[in-house]
Design brief:
about 290 residues, alpha/beta, Multidrug-efflux Transporter Regulator, Chain: A, Domain 2, Methyltransferase, Methionine Synthase (B12-binding Domains), Chain A, domain 1, 3-stranded antiparallel β-sheet, 11 helices, about 50% helix, globular, binds cobalamin
């Protein structure tokens, strides 16, 4: 559910008069809804979209539920990854949120955030863990915070049409990575699809049961860890054979190589989330 705000709250957050804000609402400059009683109401996501397009700064971000200091200074993607790593390792949720919402208000889309900020930040954390420079709890906590941020970003995206195509997916058994499949749900939602991540560590039989029950237009498989390549190949091949042709299968992730799929004609491979966005937008248009 998106946070819903009154014009008074938004005016306070942006530091303008309530009457100016109401005028913008009525001119359609900022997307507004009306209650049954005719009162104007604004969704947090629409306020953020408005801020992206305007030169206005947030003066009281707390009113919108954002950390103090959010939206005050422009932030660039370049240095943000390292700043996020520091915030994550210090378990500083507010600083992490501020960074991410600063970038979002500055125009970074959710794919840039996932592919260019979250993923490299977790990569750095993985390297530090591998060198024994950080504690395991710091790595786990970083995952939790990013997971929280991904949900928060999802909650500010525009509502998706109930008739929109459905995408669904998860990670196979033995693969305990939660963030990639959560991010795939976010990306499909941002492309206007209905999207459901089934989670991680799923046996292929249960994925098939979900496909048969919900008949998605697309099923994604995120593969970050494979226990046994031959078993995975056999199980995945058999799964693909049983999925109805009306469901496209898309695969990606760190543990999957393009040549792995050479003889699997019914499966599409995506290198990254940007690739996936192109595929999602193309399929929706056709
Ligand atoms: C957090 C973490 C874990 C956590 C995950 C917790 C959780 N709830 O998710 C847990 C504890 C499970 C874990 C366990 C292990 N881990 Co680990 N882990 C990591 C770490 C630090 C981050 C992973 C992550 O979430 N990254 C963020 C995501 C979003 O990035 P991503 O996976 O690359 O996904 C991106 C793309 O690949 C793409 N993508 C992914 N899937 C798909 C699908 C489609 C369709 C598309 C289009 C795109 C796409 O989009 C994403 C966004 O850009 C990495 C470091 C790293 N390099 O990433 C190590 C790392 C992957 N782990 C490693 C290891 C060794 C392990 C273990 C084997 C350790 C052990 N001995 O038990 C186990 C194996 C786990 C298993 N059976 O699944 C090594 C792997 C080394 C190697 N060469 O294979 C790494 C690289 C750490 C290191 N530097 O050594 N790990």
């Amino acid at each position: 559910m998106q946070q819903v705000l009154t014009p008074k709250q938004v005016a306070r957050a942006i530091g303008v008069s309530e009457s100016s804000l109401k005028r913008w609402c009525d001119r359609g400059v900022i997307q507004t809804e009306r209650t049954a009683g005719g009162h104007r109401r604004l969704k947090l996501g629409d306020v953020l979209i408005f801020l992206r397009k305007s030169d206005l700064q947030l003066v009281r971000p707390e009113v919108l539920g954002l950390p103090p200091g959010t939206g005050v200074r422009p932030r660039v993607v370049d240095r943000s990854e390292t700043q996020l790593v520091d915030a994550l390792l210090a378990s500083d949720v507010e600083c992490s949120r501020r960074l991410v919402f600063d970038l979002f208000i500055n125009g970074a889309d959710v794919i840039t955030l996932c592919d260019e900020i979250f993923m490299p930040a977790m990569y750095q954390i993985g390297e530090q863990w591998d060198c024994g420079e950080i504690e395991i709890y710091q790595e786990r906590r970083a995952c939790e915070i990013i997971g929280q941020l991904v949900y928060e970003l999802q909650s500010v995206l525009p509502a998706v049409d109930v008739e929109a195509p459905l995408a669904m997916g998860g990670t196979p058994v033995g693969d305990n990575y939660r963030l990639p499949t959560q991010m795939l749900e976010l990306v499909f939602t941002s492309c206007g699809w209905r999207a459901t991540s089934l989670g991680s560590g799923l046996p292929f039989e249960t994925m098939l049961a979900a496909v048969q029950e919900y008949r998605p237009s697309l099923f994604w498989l995120s593969v970050s860890h494979v226990q046994s390549q031959p078993d995975f190949r056999a199980d995945f091949g058999s799964f693909c054979g049983k999925v109805p042709p009306t469901t496209r299968i898309v695969v990606g992730g760190r543990a999957i190589a393009r040549d792995f799929l050479e003889d699997m004609e019914s499966v599409e491979f995506c290198d990254n989330l940007r690739d996936l966005q192109r595929l999602a937008e193309k399929s929706q248009a056709s």
